[in-house]
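pinging the channel bc i need a second pair of eyes. not urgent but kinda urgent?? the chain im working w is below, pasted from the shared doc
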Amino acid sequence: MIKIKTIKLSDIWQKDKRIEKWRKSLVPLIQLDLDKSAIKYDSQDLEHQTLFRLLTDKNLEIKTAMEEQKEIVLERMRKVKISPKQLFCFGWNREDDFWQIEWSRGRRGLYAVRGKEKKEIVFREITLRQEKEICRDIIKNYHYIHCDRCDKDKGMIFAFFVSGSKIPFAVEEIEPCDISRNYKKAVLMLSDVNYHTAVELTRFYSVPNTPKNLISLLDKMVGDALRDRGFEWMITSVMPAFAKTKASTIAGGIN
């Protein structure tokens, strides 16, 4: 497992009481809207855009901010190359929690399982230019920051697919730290880490209702692939104030 030395997350994981309060009211509103919306979207996207907007105007009502940001999200969905219908292979409701990733006997195959329903899963590095463009398009349109942040020449992309599909349902972008900005290199050196042996997880996106144990599995499989190339460390950046829990970060081995 690739790990990074750092301060314990429990000591620096900051929460914002305003965001926690807004989220309690906002999430049910988004779920009701998504149920009736003819155009589906990622509820996590609208949730974050609304929270970002609320922080800019203390007098703005939650529902008003949500409706404002929803129009922007829907306009993006109307123009996107890969539609939610094509991408959301596990449904569109992030509040569902039924899928799990399981290995077959002898770890010969990987499957997403929900009751008697089973989907074979394929994990691989993305190397073809056309496939990389698909992954970057997904990141730009569905990840809530809406900005690809991975060097086109030296960056690496790993993804999970449902077997037979050309569109990934989970994408992870990674950069080697020898092309990072100097302040990141300095932090690594101060932590006694050779930045030539480190990578940064720059973006991760998974579709709604993705199996909850996927993140830990993805980071482990990516870590195994990178270790074979001489990498020993992985770093990433998070926004604790906007995160619901730190469990997924820790589950991936970054603590």
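so Confidence is low (pLDDT under 50) at residues 250-255. and The CA atoms of residues 96 and 174 lie 29 Å apart. — does that match what u expected or am i reading it wrong
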